[in-house]
Automatic annotation (TrEMBL):
Keywords: Repeat. GO terms for molecular function: carbohydrate derivative binding; glutamine-fructose-6-phosphate transaminase (isomerizing) activity. CDD domains: SIS_GlmS_GlmD_1, SIS_GlmS_GlmD_2. InterPro entries: GlmS/AgaS_SIS (IPR035466), GlmS/FrlB_SIS (IPR035490), SIS_dom (IPR001347), SIS_dom_sf (IPR046348). One of its GO terms (biological process) is amino sugar biosynthetic process. SUPFAM superfamilies: SIS domain (SSF53697). It comes from marine sediment metagenome. Residues 1-109, 142-261 form the SIS domain. This is SIS domain-containing protein. One of its GO terms (cellular component) is cytosol.
Length: 261
């Protein structure tokens, strides 16, 4: 979006086997918390065999992936004690944002004024997260209401489609509850058939460029008697009319919202 560069996202376990078409001007970026993930390591070795440059984002200092890459950015999130990657995921997002801003300045696709504004938004995040953590009543109420539910659907668009995937993954890893993350625009192609009064649907519906589309998705869920848990922007009174339960997050620039959502 900001650099106007062709970019593909691949799962390491797929990338390593598909013999990707890539020229010498292609940069391969590897993201790994541990720096020892077997599929990711195999992927960067494949890239190196094709004489492609590799830049890795790692949390673990002097890991194998870090050592075998041409360049490395450490996210310094500290050790991940549990199986689920939480703080490392957030730190990786932040590192990618900072990298984008710096590349944007160098490529003249982001003005220095815009870069300052983006950095200013990022600097707000610690206090905004503190505010979010200090007001967990909505989250506790939601947990009490739905903790016995066996299945969940997570929907998101644009920057928060990956957030929907990550939310579903975390529910599976931490609570051992079946959950699926989906691009909200694809809901009509399969997931909507599963929506009924027993299926809670977590909709990331922030006040952003795809807000009206997400509201449309929520209406579709409600038309099938589904239970909607909306992650919404604080101050959004409209969403309350459609959602069964709402978790509000403080306003923030659209591209940085996945850190909060």
């Amino acid at each position: 979006k900001h650099l106007r560069l062709h970019t593909e996202v691949d799962i390491s376990s797929e990338f390593r086997y598909r013999n990707p078409v890539a020229g010498g001007d292609t940069l391969v970026m590897a993201i790994s918390q541990s720096g020892e993930t077997a599929d990711t390591l195999a992927g960067i070795r494949l890239a190196k065999s094709k004489f492609l440059q590799v830049l890795s984002l790692c949390n673990t200092i002097e890991s194998t992936i870090a050592r075998e890459s041409d360049g490395v950015i450490y996210v310094y999130a500290g050790p991940e004690i549990g199986v689920a990657s939480t703080k490392a995921y957030t730190a990786e997002l932040l590192a990618l944002f900072l990298l984008t801003i710096n590349w944007g300045i160098l490529r003249n696709s982001i003005s220095r004024e815009k870069a300052r504004k983006m950095i200013g938004e990022l600097e707000k995040i610690p206090s905004v997260l503190e505010e979010l953590l200090d007001n967990q009543k909505e989250i506790h109420e939601c947990a009490q209401k739905f903790y016995q539910t066996p299945n969940f659907l997570f929907l998101g668009r644009s920057f928060n489609y990956p957030t929907a995937l990550e939310g579903a993954l975390k529910l599976k890893e931490i609570s051992y509850v079946h959950a699926e993350g989906y691009a909200a625009g694809e809901m009509k192609h399969g997931p909507i058939a599963l929506v009924d009064e027993k299926m809670p649907v977590v909709c990331i519906a922030l006040k952003d460029s795809v807000y009206e589309k997400m509201v449309s998705n929520i209406r579709e869920v409600k038309a099938r008697n589904g239970k909607v848990i909306a992650v919404a922007t604080k101050g959004d009174d409209q969403i309350i009319k459609y959602a069964d339960h709402t978790i509000f997050i403080p306003p923030i620039a659209e591209e940085f919202s996945p850190i909060l959502a």
